[in-house]
Structure formats: structure tokens, C-alpha cells
Amino acid sequence: MKALTKLVLLAAAVMSPALAQANDLEAALSSETAQFTLRSDSSIIGWGGAELGVGFFYNNADDYVGQFSLMQRRQASEKAPLTLGVGVKAYVGNVETVDQGIFAVSIGGEVRYTIPGVMPMSVYLTANYAPKITSFSDTEEVIDSNLGFQIEVLPQTVAFVGLRNLKVNLKEGQSYDMDDDRLHVGVRLTF
Questions:
Q1: 99-147 residue pLDDT tens
Q2: How many Cβ atoms are within 10 Å of 155's Cβ, its own excluded?
Q3: Whole-prediction pTM value?
Q4: In sequence order, what are the residues at sequence separation of 6 or more whose Cβ sits closer than 8 angstroms to the Cβ of residue 16?
Q5: Domains of the chain from N-terminus onward
Q6: Most buried of the four, 6, 114, 131, 189, by CB within 10 Å?
Q7: Which of 53, 50, 28, 49 is nearest to 39 (CA)?
């Protein structure tokens, strides 16, 4: 477990330029979970046009997961309100109740339908999957999905509500829901 903690600290140090130049901060809370994410344009790592994210998730069972993501998506317009995105996401953390380490790299996608207006709204589904071949440590696979609705309540401020499911299958045959379809609410502040 010490090696995993060192890996998380190393990843945070490598990502510190992204943290210092973040474009937005997102907080998503439920009755038993919290997730905080900083996002920036990927140009700080030499590849512009994508969204670079660094997040931290934890729950009331003292489980935690650091998340590092890169998502490429097209912007919505009046003529094309349906957008798609693809990307990769890495998970590093610990399932505390069974003391099992999480380390996985996933591929993922996003489908979003935007309703234009003075207060733009959208409905979205994001999903990430890390199969056995890209899951390491004590992890067999990771399945992460999120169905939500968001509205731009103020310029540069988005409020959202959604259902999230974060499931980790462990090598010992155990399946653990870190966040099992809990309703969460949140806000994204852009600066």
C-alpha cells in the first residue's frame, strides 16, 4: 500500500502544472460520497483541444480514488446539439473495507444533448471501463458511469444533478460499489 501512496503522490506532482492552471473546479456531493475535480485545457501538456482532469473521490467507508483523465469532445451548437466525446481515465486508490489497492486505466465516452437558450441545459451519459488487461494491483476491472442533467445558472457557473455508479471488481472475486447509483448534486465553477 505504501507503493500505491507513493504513486499517487508522484502523479499529483507530475500533474501540479495542471492544478495550478485549472480552468474549472467541480464539486459533486451525495449523502455518502464526495468528488472534487479540477479541469484544464490539455495544452499545458503539449496537446491542445482536449480536457485534462484531476479528481479525488471518497466515501463514508473511507475508500478513496484519485482520478486522472483526458477527454476529447466536440462543442455543441444550435445545428448540432448532440455531441460525443472519447477519452482515457486512470484510477488510483484504495478500498478501505477490504484493504485492496486500485490501479486501472480505462477508456471512456460521453454522449451529451444540449438544449440551447439563455440558460443552456444538457442531459449527458458518461461511461468508463477498465478491463482486466489494464487493471493492476488488486483490481480486476473498474466500471464508472454517470447519468446527469445540468443547467448554466449563471455565466461560468453550472449546477447539476445525476446518478453515479462506481464499481470496482477485485482479484479475489469481490465486487465493491464505491458509489452505487446515489443521487448527487454539484456545481462547476469556471474561472
A1: 899 999 999 999 999 998 889 999 999 999 999 999 999 999 999 999 9
A2: 6
A3: 0.86
A4: none
A5: 2-190 (2.40.160)
A6: 114
A7: 53
